[in-house]
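Researcher: Quick test of sequence recovery. Tokens follow.
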């Protein structure tokens, strides 16, 4: 599907999108809604008024009306609610629903942009619509026949030709972001027999080759042994594949002593069986998605590097599966982390924190100024916040606040959870420095974070995003597939780094 800008003449297309708004007068029982459509071209308005069923269309949010015109073209009229209340998320959702509808009914589609402006921000509307269309049209088709849909071309049309260049830039940037979201989804959706740690690492290194100023390195098993990454290696002990730590660095064209350095860290469990603490069949299926953290930060990293932002950005992906054989780590094992701390592994299913522990220590040696990690870490985060949210925890209020602000700006649901001393205390072992699960129930998401905190050096501002809840199956969001990877949090992380200041 091609998205092009048209800022010139009257255009032809099989289907045209126009927005309808509504005006509400009176209150409660006396409230009356009236359609606001004075801005439509006269021929559309006339045809609409002639259609008997048009009297029921009031321009409310979620309503739509498909008007077939005598010319053979059609107008798809989208109810957007009250104009003053129009938000980016409404636009994202309504355009996503519409593109899905139109994709099987039309070869080309013209969006009359001047109808869909957020405040006066033509650029933002263009960006949001482009991003929404590409995210909504995502299809994981590697293992089935790809959909062949008639829709081939979307024309974003504006009468304001002075915006031509700036809107073209917005389209290109939104395409880059949405492509990265879709790349994240592709990785997450790949099954474990297709994507093991070694293939995942190779695929990432190959993929990033096209981006300038990025260096890639893979730390393998031998090197991990040398560096004493006992926690990461313990998770990998039962695996047929090597553990892989992918280390990417983007260096901007100008670096001074003031250049900020951000590190993005991801949990990349290509499959989580639970290990000897085997997951029951009801929750083991789906664990191919346990590398969503790595896929998310990688996708964000790719965009940040491609944009050529003036910050140094590193990316660290900890990849392995959590499998079982006679060498797999047994509960009660005590291992030594890269930073020298000993860990009693009481639950082999709390493996993400073990991988992140050593990756975090490695990360801190690169001396970043800020760290974000993303991980499908705990079912407890889902219990606390629901499937609609990611949770954020960390060691620095301001850094968390910055990321929360970005999540709000991107309309991605992220909520802060507290780490307190009692949780830290609960992770102390009587025969090692730490245990990998708490002694008592409750606060599971935060205890996972509190565990990782032990491996953050020098108090570097660090935020941990637990994406176990919304990394998949976001059926309520029309720009996400109903089943499978969502690609959420990619946009939040990009926005955070873009606005580092
Ligand atoms: N990968 C899981 C967490 C998960 C659960 C991700 C549901 C996606 C959906 C993680 O490794 C895990 O198994 N966590 C345990 C931790 C517990 C043993 C302390 C959990 O949440 O049950
Ligand atoms: Zn697990
Ligand atoms: Zn896991």
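Model:
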């Amino acid at each position: 599907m091609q998205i092009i800008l048209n800022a010139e003449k009257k255009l032809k297309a099989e289907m045209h999108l126009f927005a309808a708004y509504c005006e509400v007068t009176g209150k409660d029982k006396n409230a009356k809604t009236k359609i606001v459509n004075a801005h439509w071209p006269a021929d559309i308005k006339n045809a609409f008024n002639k259609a008997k069923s048009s009297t029921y269309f009031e321009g409310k949010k979620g309503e739509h009306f498909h008007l077939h015109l005598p010319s053979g073209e059609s107008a798809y009229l989208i109810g957007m609610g009250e104009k003053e209340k129009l938000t980016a998320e409404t636009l994202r959702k309504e355009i996503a629903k519409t593109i899905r509808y139109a994709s099987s009914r039309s070869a080309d589609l013209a969006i009359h942009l001047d109808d869909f402006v957020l405040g006066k921000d033509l650029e933002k509307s263009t960006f949001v619509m482009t991003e929404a269309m590409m995210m909504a049209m995502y299809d994981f088709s590697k293992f089935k026949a790809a959909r062949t849909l008639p829709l081939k071309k979307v024309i974003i049309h504006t009468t304001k030709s002075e915006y031509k260049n700036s809107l073209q830039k917005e389209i290109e940037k939104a395409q880059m972001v949405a492509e990265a979201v879709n790349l994240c989804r592709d990785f997450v959706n790949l099954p474990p027999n297709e994507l093991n740690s070694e293939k995942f690492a190779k695929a990432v290194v190959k993929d990033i080759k096209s981006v300038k100023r990025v260096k890639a390195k893979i730390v393998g098993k031998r090197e991990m042994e040398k560096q004493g990454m006992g926690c990461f290696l313990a998770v990998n002990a039962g695996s047929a594949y090597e553990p892989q730590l992918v280390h990417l660095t983007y260096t901007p064209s100008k670096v001074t002593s003031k250049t900020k350095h951000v590190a993005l860290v991801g949990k990349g469990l290509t499959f989580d069986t639970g290990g000897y603490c085997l997951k029951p069949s009801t929750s083991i299926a789906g664990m191919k998605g346990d590398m969503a953290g790595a896929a998310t930060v990688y996708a964000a990293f790719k965009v940040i590097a491609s944009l050529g932002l003036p910050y140094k950005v590193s990316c660290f992906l900890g990849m392995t599966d959590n499998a079982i054989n006679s060498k797999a780590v047994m509960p009660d094992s005590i291992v030594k982390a890269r930073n020298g701390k000993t860990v009693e592994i009481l639950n082999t299913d709390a493996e993400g924190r073990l991988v992140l522990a050593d990756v975090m220590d490695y990360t801190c040696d690169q001396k970043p100024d800020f760290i974000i990690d993303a991980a499908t870490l705990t079912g407890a985060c889902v219990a606390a916040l629901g499937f609609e949210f990611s949770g954020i925890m960390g060691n620095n209020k301001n850094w968390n606040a910055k990321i929360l602000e970005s999540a709000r700006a991107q309309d991605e649901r992220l909520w802060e959870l507290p780490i307190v001393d009692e949780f830290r205390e609960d992770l102390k072992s009587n025969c090692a420095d730490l245990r990998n699960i708490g002694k008592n129930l409750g606060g599971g998401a935060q205890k996972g974070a509190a565990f990782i905190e032990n491996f953050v050096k020098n108090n570097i501002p660090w935020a941990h995003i637990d994406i176990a809840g919304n990394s998949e199956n976001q059926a309520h969001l029309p720009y996400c597939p109903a089943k499978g990877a969502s690609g959420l949090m990619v946009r939040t992380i990009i926005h955070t780094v873009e606005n580092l200041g």
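The longest strand covers residues 261-272.
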